[in-house]
């Protein structure tokens, strides 16, 4: 009879260990699935943000090209031909972007261009990067 009880105890102990192991496996599997889901959500969010930033950069580049084109046209056909215009002077009635372009050509850092012209730091960095690159 004692042998039967010890075998029964052993079988119950093995079943309990197997149950705990199965529960542990199930819990880890659920956690891994949740982790993958969260990572995928963050990845999708980052992809969306990256796409938005790329669209913004394209928009800014197109805007900058339009400004360059209008600046080139204004330089080719000045409104006041009799007025002296210094090459390095920044006119107070010029658009902020034209002022930023001129300051970038003079070698001013982006932070100062942004504060002087009232444009965002990223716009100033873009203008400085483009116009310093164009000089060299």
Summed over residues and divided by their number, the pLDDT gives a mean of 84
Radius of gyration: 34 Å
Query: How many strands, what sense, and barrel or not for the largest sheet?
Result: none
Q: Percent of residues in beta strands?
A: under 5%
Number of domain modules:
2
Question: What's the helix-strand series?
Answer: HHHH
Q: What shape does the CA trace take?
A: rod-shaped
Instruction: Name the helicity range.
Output: over 70%
How would you classify the helix and strand content by structural class? mainly alpha
Number of strands: 0
- Amino-to-carboxy terminus distance: 97 Å
Unreliable runs, pLDDT <50, ≥5 residues? 81-88
Number of helices: 4
What is the topological layout?
Elements: H1 2-76, H2 96-105, H3 110-117, H4 121-135
Helix pairs in contact: 2-3, 2-4, 3-4
Tell me what the structure shows.
By secondary structure, the protein is mainly alpha-helical. The protein folds into two domains: 7-74; 94-135. 79% of the residues lie in helices and 0% in strands. The chain has four helices and no strands. The protein has helices spanning 2-76, 96-105, 110-117, 121-135. Helix 2 runs antiparallel to helix 3 (110-117), helix 2 (96-105) crosses helix 4 and helix 3 (110-117) crosses helix 4. It is rod-shaped and about 115 Å long. Residues 81-88 have low confidence and may be disordered.
């Amino acid at each position: 009879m004692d042998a039967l009880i010890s075998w029964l105890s052993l079988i119950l102990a093995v079943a309990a260990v197997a149950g705990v192991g199965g529960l542990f496996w199930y819990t880890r599997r659920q956690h891994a699935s949740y982790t993958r889901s969260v990572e995928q959500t963050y990845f999708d969010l980052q992809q969306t943000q990256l796409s938005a930033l790329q669209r913004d950069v394209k928009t800014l580049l197109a805007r900058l090209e339009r400004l360059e084109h209008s600046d080139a046209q204004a330089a080719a056909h000045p409104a006041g031909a009799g007025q002296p215009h210094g090459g390095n002077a920044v006119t107070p009635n010029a658009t902020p972007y034209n002022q930023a372009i001129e300051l970038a050509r003079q070698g001013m850092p982006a932070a100062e261009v942004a504060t002087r012209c009232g444009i965002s730091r990223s716009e100033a960095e873009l203008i400085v990067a483009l116009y310093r690159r164009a000089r060299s």
